[in-house]
Structures are given as structure tokens and as C-alpha cells.
Design brief:
The longest helix has 24 residues. This protein starts with a helix and ends with a helix. It has 446 residues and is of the alpha+beta class. The chain has 15 helices and twelve strands. The strands form two sheets. It has a seven-stranded antiparallel β-sheet, with no helix packed on it. A five-stranded mixed β-sheet has the order 5-4-6-7-10, with no helix packed on it. Helix 1 packs parallel to helix 3 and helix 5 packs parallel to helix 9.
Length: 446
């Protein structure tokens, strides 16, 4: 059994040596695959040999022919000797050291990445516009105030970019390469935005009543002063802009008025005399105002005609309700949800519809589809007594007693009025009724 196991391990080692042959011949040790799991599997024979070779090579630093150090003092078995002898027979090539040319190349490839990272928001069009504007004006402050870049840069950012284009070879080289790749139309559009120099503005300042031919002659006479991409139309537009801001020599700015002169619109409005102004009549507006006035008067007249109908006020009952009576309320029909303030000697009760308007709409208290449109009438007699007359189909219950249609019944203070399952308490203003009785008695004595 031992001999069989030994021969099988030797066959496996021969196969493993054939597999490792090309890899060792090339001078590189293949990397051992390891699992990232917590529980690791057992290593095979060829993996054991490779791990021992890797440890020995790291300790001996590439020295061939030296046996790896053993942890125990016991001698290795015959199979282990064979494995080691076979594996050490092929020399291990040291790890390749990068040549200096390759290192320089790697450094060069890394540097542009850092530079492009620091470029920020500056674009090739901005660089070209900055260069042309500075060459025209020789003033970074004027460039900051007069040039419109793709982003809003402050004066410090413009200064730093200009110094980087001048003195940083890497940034200037990259910027030049990017500007060379711009389209000719984009370059022409950028050149049309270049600021005017002081010499150009001085030549434009000397012209009076110019035309396009005048500006074309200026371009032919002074090609060294004007920017190469200037056109007669561009010169005319800039001249008009200078004229608008009173920058021409033949223009004079009027001084500010002093004394009683008008300086603002409010002073001018105070000085106006409304009587001297012409009153322009607008017939359409006057007609509209007349129609609106007529409509408002008609609504007021309708309200005056309907005043006698507003004999009962409806007030919703809340937790903090106001007192039931005032100086004009004769009685109150108080329900669970609302209360009706009786302010005339006669009121009608029922269900309000479009065709039938009544004083007390019982539908505000609850379901009133069983109530007649004119269910009853409450009247105050001259002697101070209240009576209710039933004019509907269903009976009205006063303190539990039914009042049929066509009959009437006296209402006392705190009487309970029930109409189609809707219950109300009838409260009488005793003070006001006493005054009414006293006046009736005086009239009777007279």
C-alpha cells in the first residue's frame, strides 16, 4: 500500500512538473489561488510544494540551490526529497526590475493627469479669448470687466490662469494643443469678441458722421493698429456704443441742473396744474360706469323691498353662544343646531323652496322633507300672548299635545314645539313683552 501510494504521488508530481514547466521557464512563479472564505480547504501536493518554494524564495531572496529552512529537526521523507529536488532543479528567475526609460515614461503619463485635474473650469475658448484680450489691452482688470467668459471668473482666477499660461510649461503646452483643435468658426467667433485697444478707440474717436466706407478706409489705412479680424461693421457698432455713453470728443455732457430745476418725476408731478390739463372724455368708459351704477341701484332697491321679509335671524349654536335676547328680539325658537330670532309680530314656519320663501326654514335644523312648505304661523297678540296656527298636513305637537291642521294653540315660555321629529324650545323675552303690554294698556286707557 505504501509503495502504491508513493508511485501515485510521483505520477502526480510528474504531471504537476509538466504543467509548471512553461511557467518556470518563463521566469515567473504562477500565483496560488486562495479562497476568501473563512473555512479554507486542504491543499494538494503541488500547492504545498509551490507554497514552500514561495517562502524559501522570499527568505533566500532568489538564491538557487539552497534548501528551504525546516522548522523541525527531523529529516524529510524520501517523497519530500524528490519533490524538493525536482522543484529546485529549475532556477527561479528574479522579479523583473523596471528600466529607467519605462519609469520616465510612467512619470510622464501620470503628470498630464494631475495637470488636467487642476485645469478647473477653463476651456480652450476661454484661454484663446484671454490671450487675445490681454494682448489688446495689456490690463487684466480691463479683461475681467469687459470680457464675458464661459464661466464667471474673478480677477484672481484670471491672474492665476494668465501666469500659468506664461510660466507653467505643462499647462501652456496642453492649452496650446487644445486651442489648435478648435474649429475655425469657433476661433472666428472668439476673435469677434476681443476688446478694443486704446489706439483703436482713439482712431474711432476722430471720425464724425461716419459710414461703413469710412470705417473700411480706416481699416486700410491702419492695418497695424486694428486687430486683424476687425470688420467695418464691428467698428461701426463700437463707435455707436461709444456715442451712446458720451465717449466721443465732439460730445458734451450737460451739467446737472441747479436751483429750481426739476430732478425727479415726483417734483414734476407736484408742479402740474390739474385745471390746465385737458379732460379727454372716454365715451366707452362713461357708458360702462353708467351701467354699473344703474345695476348697483337696482340691487339696493331690491334689498329695500325685501327688508320686511328679513323678520327672523338664524344663529348657529356653539359651546359659547351669545345671550338669547337683545332689545329687538321678541322670542326665540331654539333647536339643537340653530336658533331662530323672532323680531316681528308674525312669522311663518315651513320648508323653503325656490318658489316658496318663508321666514323660518326648518331644513337648517335637520331633515325636513316631511314638513310642509308652509307648516305654521306664530303671531303675537296685542295682549302679549303668542299663538301658533297649524297650516300644514302633519300635526304640530306643543308640550306633547297635537295641534291638527287648521287649529291654533297658545305658546308659553319654555314650550316644546315638535314638528316632524324636529324639536324646538320656544323662549319669550319677558322684559320686552312687559313693555309691549304696558304700552297696550296706556293706549286702551286713552
Amino acid at each position: 500500500m505504501a509503495s502504491g501510494a508513493t508511485s501515485r504521488s510521483e505520477d502526480e508530481e510528474s504531471l504537476a512538473g509538466q504543467k509548471r514547466g512553461p511557467a518556470q521557464a518563463s521566469g515567473a512563479i504562477p500565483k496560488r489561488r486562495s479562497s476568501s472564505r473563512f473555512i479554507k480547504r486542504k491543499k494538494f501536493d503541488d500547492e504545498l510544494v509551490e507554497s514552500s518554494l514561495a517562502k524559501s524564495s522570499s527568505r533566500a531572496k532568489g538564491a538557487a540551490g539552497v534548501e528551504p529552512g525546516r522548522c523541525s529537526g527531523s529529516e524529510p521523507s524520501s517523497s519530500e526529497k524528490k519533490k524538493v529536488s525536482k522543484s529546485v532543479s529549475t532556477p527561479i528567475a528574479p522579479s523583473p526590475v523596471p528600466t529607467p526609460g519605462l519609469a520616465k515614461r510612467m512619470k510622464k503619463s501620470k503628470q498630464p493627469l494631475q495637470v488636467t485635474k487642476d485645469l478647473g473650469r477653463w476651456k480652450p475658448a476661454d484661454d484663446l479669448l484671454l490671450i487675445n484680450a490681454v494682448l489688446q489691452t495689456n490690463d487684466l482688470t480691463s479683461v475681467h470687466l469687459g470680457v464675458k467668459f464661459s464661466c464667471r471668473f474673478n480677477l484672481r482666477e484670471i491672474q492665476e490662469r494668465w501666469y500659468a499660461l506664461l510660466y507653467d510649461p505643462i499647462i501652456s503646452k496642453l492649452a496650446c494643443q487644445a486651442m489648435r483643435q478648435l474649429h475655425p468658426e469657433a476661433i472666428a467667433a472668439i476673435q469677434s469678441k476681443v476688446l478694443f485697444s486704446k489706439a483703436e478707440e482713439q482712431l474711432l474717436n476722430k471720425t464724425s458722421q461716419p459710414t461703413l466706407d469710412t470705417f473700411q478706409e480706416l481699416l486700410h489705412k491702419h492695418p497695424d493698429v486694428f486687430y486683424p479680424s476687425r470688420t467695418a461693421k464691428a467698428l461701426q457698432l463700437h463707435w455707436q456704443l461709444m456715442k451712446q455713453y458720451y465717449l466721443l470728443d465732439d460730445q458734451t455732457v450737460q451739467p446737472l441742473p441747479k436751483g429750481d430745476q426739476v430732478l425727479n418725476f415726483s417734483d414734476a408731478e407736484d408742479m402740474l396744474d390739474d385745471n390746465k390739463l385737458k379732460d379727454v372724455r372716454d365715451e366707452v368708459l362713461e357708458h360702462e360706469l353708467t351701467v354699473a351704477d344703474r345695476r348697483q341701484k337696482r340691487e339696493i332697491r331690491q334689498l329695500e323691498q325685501e327688508l320686511h321679509k328679513w323678520q327672523v335671524l338664524v344663529d348657529s349654536i356653539t359651546g359659547m353662544s351669545s345671550p338669547d335676547f337683545d332689545s329687538q328680539t321678541l322670542a326665540v325658537l331654539r333647536g339643537r343646531m340653530v336658533r331662530y330670532l323672532m323680531r316681528s309680530r308674525e312669522i311663518t314656519l315651513g320648508r323653503a323652496t325656490k318658489d316658496n320663501q318663508i321666514d323660518v326654514d326648518l331644513a337648517l335644523e335637520g331633515p325636513a322633507w316631511k314638513i310642509s312648505r308652509k307648516q305654521g304661523v306664530i303671531k303675537l297678540k296685542n295682549n302679549g300672548d303668542f299663538f301658533i296656527a297649524n297650516e300644514g298636513r302633519r300635526p304640530i305637537y306643543i308640550d306633547g299635545r297635537p295641534v291638527l291642521g287648521g287649529n291654533k294653540w297658545k305658546l308659553n315660555n319654555n314650550s316644546v314645539v315638535e314638528i316632524a321629529s324636529l324639536r324646538f324650545v320656544f323662549l319669550i323675552n319677558q322684559d320686552l313683552i312687559a313693555l309691549i303690554k304696558a304700552e297696550a294698556a296706556k293706549l286702551a286707557q286713552q
